[in-house]
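Lab manual, section 2.4: Encoding a predicted structure.

Procedure: take the sequence of the chain (165 residues), apply the prediction step described in section 2.3, and record the output as structure tokens. A sample record is shown.
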Amino acid sequence: MKTATTGQPSCSIQATLDIVGDRWTLLILRDLFRGVRRFSAMQHDLGIARNMLADRLSRLVDADVVAKVPYQHRPVRFDYVLTHKGLDLSNSLLALMAWGDRWCQDGDAPTVLLHADCGTPLELATRCPSCDEPVSPARIRSRASHSDTAPARAIRPHPTNGGAL
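Recorded output:
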């Protein structure tokens, strides 16, 4: 659903899905985060058709999520690199990976992400920036961002899962 005044999606999740919301785009982003930057390497790694890869990369470039950087001039060939906007998708991909590890891999992660400096496996957590406490989905509230007087709404607990989203 788009707002009448701006024509923008009224939901940030929908706006994000409009850019990255298909299987191939997410797998291309995964490859970029893993350091795969060349078209041929992505095509080989993903097993994706050339036209499909070209289309998805073009959409990511148009959305300023990925930049094309020439690495060869005759003929012109490009590396595809994440922009700052693209790098900001890291936590979203980490959340999808953590969910998949838990619910699709029975907790047996096929890949473990490590802190580059010390080698410790990473955890994904939502923390309150004020009190530095972890926040479970059942403890998250929302309010309209354009109104300081709007009351916070609780995310409705699901009756079968104890309040988790």
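Check your result against the sample. The first helix runs from residue 12 to 20.
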